[in-house]
Structure formats: structure tokens, C-alpha cells
From TrEMBL:
Enzyme Commission numbers on file: 2.4.1.-
The protein, known as: Glycosyl transferase, group 1
UniProt superkingdom: Bacteria
UniProt entry tagged with the keyword Translocase: no
Top enzyme class: transferase
The Glycosyltransferase subfamily 4-like N-terminal domain, residue ranges: 25-182
Gene Ontology MF: a single term: glycosyltransferase activity
Keyword list, A-Z: Glycosyltransferase, Transferase
InterPro entries in UniProt: Glyco_trans_4-like_N
Taxonomic source organism: Stigmatella aurantiaca (strain DW4/3-1)
Pfam families found in the cross-reference section: Glyco_trans_1_4, Glyco_transf_4
SUPFAM superfamilies recorded: UDP-Glycosyltransferase/glycogen phosphorylase
Length: 385
């Protein structure tokens, strides 16, 4: 818990818990850390997890937090789940938690019923379009979202899904975009590469940052677009950042398409800002997507981004203004967008500058924290009054 400071004359401090699955590297975990850094000192902040693990745990502890662990130990269907719900409800009461903000699916399964048992206000974060889940999980997540006191989506497309498909009252849904710490991002760009990159001989480079766990990221469409450009006599290299069980399959596809010399699989990297600084453009060609930190970082780097017209991508990119928008699973249109950027450097530069300006105005870390602070005050104070 962070040391307490005065909340204001006559006011009890809000005892706020941030609850997430773990602190492995991911967009959600980074946003939780940014909230912990940025929220006013008047909060009594605590952190809980399903698993006290991940490379970001060290950063969490440097901020002064030791997370309380409520492990699932496997399937949600085991008796341990009920035990952890009861244990968590008792802990809410003992710690006098006013409000808990839960950030992911599995944590929501524990936190919402525990909060209702304890009489604690609960905010559920919905950060994607539930495209990872089958019908049963989607139905359960929707039900728990309706039970929450409020739901936070990080994109308009997610808000629409919650209201129109899942039946969450519109009055209990807010959209708060992710935030990016631009000074820290710029500093990381200037630090330079921490690992070498392939020599492209000065040829243009497109950067793709995404995991290789699920076909939804559609790296194969990028490979097809590289092949099409090569057939037209144009050379474009791709740096593919990320790793996962699909990597070997994608590398094999690159070989079969004859673009192994153009598609460079870099694995996990912690110097992504410096990679963006060396790219000509960025791309995210997913068939479904939430609010992508990868797209935000490419915009912050002043690059024209090529994205598919799914999920929150169109919250970030206006076609022809801050980048180019193409249909999903359409390598030919992806190739066309790449060709446009390569052939029109002036327009590419204008789009990159507009993207950077949008991040500065709409996606700052300060704006993200301030909007969460206002929501926390509204929801928690309604419980105390």
C-alpha cells in the first residue's frame, strides 16, 4: 500500500484497489502501472493479482506496492475459485476497500462476486472485443459486466458492443482511451537500439508489433503484401516484433512465399520505440483488435500507420489523415497502402505529423489518469454518501 496523504478536509481517503491477472509484459499491465504512478496521493492504493509474477513485478515493487495474491490454480470450475471469492470478499471488508477496478477477464470472475458479497463498489475494465473467447466465456463476462457499478472501455467500438450486444446500460459505460507517457517514450527513442537489427541496405522498413499467439494478428497478410510488392519491383523490409507458438509457422510461410530475406522476425524486444525511429511506416493488420498500444506508439513516433478497419483502430487512425485504413484479411489492399506511402513521402510525412499531434492532444498519460480519477471519485463517493 502507498503511504496515505490527506484526501481533503473532512473527507475519508478513497481506498482503491487495482486488480489484474499478473504483471507480465502487456498493454493492460503497463496501463495499470501508469495509473499507480499518476493518481493523486490522496488515494489509499492497493494492488492484487491472480499470480504474483512477471517481469513488471519489479517495477511495481519499486513504486512501493506488494501485491496481494488470490491464485486460481487452474480452471475456474474448481472449488478453489469459490474459496478465493470468499477470501477476497473478507479481505475487502478487512481492508475497508471503497472501490476496486478490475482489468481482465479471469480477475473479473473473482472480483465482481467478491465485491458484491462485501458491499464494495466495482469497476470492470473491458479492453478488447472479446474476440479471444468462445460464446460461454463471452456470456459470463457480459453478465458480470452488467453486475458492475461501472464499466470502462478504452475504445468506442468496445462501448458499442457493451451497450448494443451485452445489454450494459449506456449510463454505466465510459470510454477512456489508453494513455502514453510521451516524454518517456521520446527518451526511449533517443536511447537507441539495445539489440542489433538486420541490415536492410537503406531500404524502407515497415514495423509490425504483435504477439504470435493467435491468428487474429494476421502476420501472414503482411507477408503476402511484401511478396506482392516484390513482384511489382519494389522492396520493403518488415521487422516483426513479438513471439509465440505461431512464429515457426509464420517463418515457414515467409520461406514458401520467397520473402525470408525481407521478413525479419526479431522476437520480443524492449527497445520498440527505437525500432519505430528506424522504420518508414508501421502496420497492424489484425482481423480484430482493441485499443492497440502498438498503434499508439507508432503514432507517437510520427510514423504513418497502416491499420485494418476493425475495433479501436479507427478510433486512432482516420484514413488519409493520420495514416491509412484498409479492410481486414486483404493483402492486396495492404500492399496498395504500402505502395502509396512509399510513392508519396510528402503525404506520408504529413500523416505521421498529424498522428503525433493526435497522441499529444488526445492520448496523453495525464488525460488518461485525470479521467480515471474523475470516474473513481464519482463511483466511490456515491458509495459513501
Amino acid at each position: 500500500m502507498r503511504p496515505e496523504k490527506a484526501a481533503g478536509q473532512g473527507e475519508e481517503p478513497i481506498r482503491l484497489m487495482q486488480f489484474t491477472r499478473s504483471f507480465h509484459i502487456g498493454g493492460t499491465e503497463v496501463q495499470v502501472l501508469e495509473l499507480l504512478r499518476g493518481l493523486p496521493q490522496s488515494y489509499r492504493l492497493q494492488v492484487s493479482v491472480l499470480q504474483d509474477a512477471g517481469p513488471l513485478v519489479g517495477t511495481l515493487r519499486e513504486l512501493g506496492f506488494k501485491p496481494e495474491e488470490f491464485p486460481l490454480n487452474g480452471s475456474l470450475m474448481r472449488p478453489n475459485t469459490a474459496w478465493q471469492i470468499l477470501r477476497l470478499a473478507r479481505w475487502f471488508k478487512q481492508q475497508k476497500i471503497s472501490l476496486v477496478h478490475v482489468h481482465d477477464f479471469y480477475s473479473t470472475m473473482l472480483v465482481v462476486p467478491a465485491a458484491k458479497l462485501a458491499g464494495t463498489k466495482v469497476i470492470v475494465g473491458r479492453l478488447d472485443l472479446a474476440h479471444w473467447h468462445g460464446p460461454a466465456k463471452r456470456a459470463v463476462h457480459a453478465g458480470f459486466s452488467r453486475m458492475a457499478d461501472h464499466v470502462v472501455a478504452n475504445a468506442e467500438a468496445i462501448r458499442r458492443m457493451l451497450v448494443e450486444e451485452e445489454g450494459v446500460p449506456a449510463s454505466r459505460v465510459s470510454v477512456i482511451h489508453n494513455g502514453l507517457d510521451l516524454p518517456r517514450f521520446d527518451a526511449r527513442m533517443q536511447e537507441g537500439l539495445l539489440q542489433p537489427v538486420p541490415d536492410t541496405g537503406g531500404a524502407p522498413v515497415v514495423l509490425h508489433v504483435a504477439n504470435m499467439n493467435h491468428p487474429v494478428k494476421r502476420q501472414e497478410d503482411l507477408l503476402q503484401a511484401l511478396r506482392m510488392l516484390r513482384q511489382e519491383g519494389q522492396t520493403l523490409h518488415a521487422f516483426l516484433v513479438g513471439d509465440g507458438p505461431r512464429r515457426a509457422e509464420l517463418e515457414q510461410q515467409a520461406a514458401e512465399m520467397g520473402v525470408s530475406d525481407l521478413a525479419h522476425f526479431l522476437g520480443h524486444r524492449i527497445d520498440v520505440p527505437a525500432l519505430y525511429a528506424r522504420a518508414t511506416m508501421g502496420v497492424l493488420c489484425s482481423s480484430a483488435e482493441g485499443m492497440s498500444n502498438a498503434v499508439m506508439e507508432g503514432m507517437a513516433a510520427g510514423l504513418p500507420m497502416v491499420v485494418t478497419s476493425v475495433g479501436a483502430n479507427t478510433d486512432l487512425i482516420v484514413d488519409g489523415e493520420r495514416g491509412l485504413v484498409v479492410p481486414p484479411e486483404n493483402p492486396a489492399r495492404l500492399c496498395q497502402a504500402f505502395r502509396h506511402i512509399l510513392s508519396n513521402p510528402g503525404h506520408a510525412q504529413q500523416m505521421g505529423q498529424a498522428a503525433r499531434a493526435f497522441v499529444q492532444k488526445e492520448l496523453s498519460l495525464e488525460r488518461m489518469v485525470q479521467r480515471h480519477h474523475a470516474l473513481y471519485q464519482s463511483v466511490a463517493r456515491s458509495a459513501l454518501n
